[in-house]
Structures are given as structure tokens and as C-alpha cells.
Amino acid sequence: MCNSVVKLLFCVFLIVLCSGQSNVPPVPLNTPPPPNLHIGLTERIGNFSVELLYHTSKIQNHTQNLIVSPITVWSVLAVISEGASHTTLAQIHKAIRLSLKNRESTRNQFRNIAQYLLVNTKTVELAKINAIFVNIDNLPLIDFRALAKNYYD
Q1: β-sheet bridge partners, residue 21
Q2: What is d(CA 103, CA 78) in angstroms, rounded to the nearest whole number?
Q3: Helices and strands (H, E) in the chain, number of each type
Q4: Measured on CA atoms in the order 24, 26, 28, 33, is the torsion positive or negative?
């Protein structure tokens, strides 16, 4: 089970690493974060991140290096949950600390948080990149593609 989780996380990391850049302009550095930025969704993502890093470190070979982006893993699972249903949806939402009742609120909060993750200065440039690889014979529904692009791209 642990090996499959590590393999899944590695695949998610590779997918994000090998994809195109978003065209969302970065938030200027002098823009203060909203006063409620560190409550709600941010707290849930933080809790997920701490648990992901803890469990990853427990199974990681301590003679090897590993880079994990918890926000990336959380984002990928959030997008996957948009196309999931029933038991799978409930399991993903439990893992990423979301309520099935507040999906629209979560989407909007994530879009706001994502703006603060983009940095573009003279010395540092961070960009959010996303891609979904699919089987040509089983393409995602148009509604899913539109929702994923609108809220998570």
C-alpha cells in the first residue's frame, strides 16, 4: 500500500512537472494577502500537507532525496475529485480535508490562494503548471474539462 502511494505521488509530481504553464498573471509582491487567507481552505491544505510530508518521510529511504510539493498533490487530488463520484469522491475529499457540501466555496477559495503562489521577481520565478494525460478512447467530459480549467488552471 505504501509503495503504491509513493508511486502515485511520484506520478502526480511528474505530471505537474511535464506540463504547460498557466497564463494567470502573478499577484504583485506589494499586494497584502487578504486577512482571512490563513483560515478555511488554507488551514485544510496545511493540515493535508503536514500529514503528507509526515507519512512520506516515514516510508522514504533516508539515504535518498525526495522532493514533494504538497500543494501540487492537493491540487491534483482536488481536480480528480471534480470528476469522481460516490465512494471515490468521498475518499478523496476525506484525504484532502474537504466537505462535499462546500464545493463551490472550495473552488473559489483555491482560485484566490493560487494567485498568491505565483511569484515573478528579478531573481525568482514560480509558475503553476497543470496537465491531464488521458486515454484517447476515454476523454473527460466537457463539463469536467471546463470546471478544471476554470478553477484549477
Answers
A1: 129
A2: 10
A3: 6, 4
A4: positive
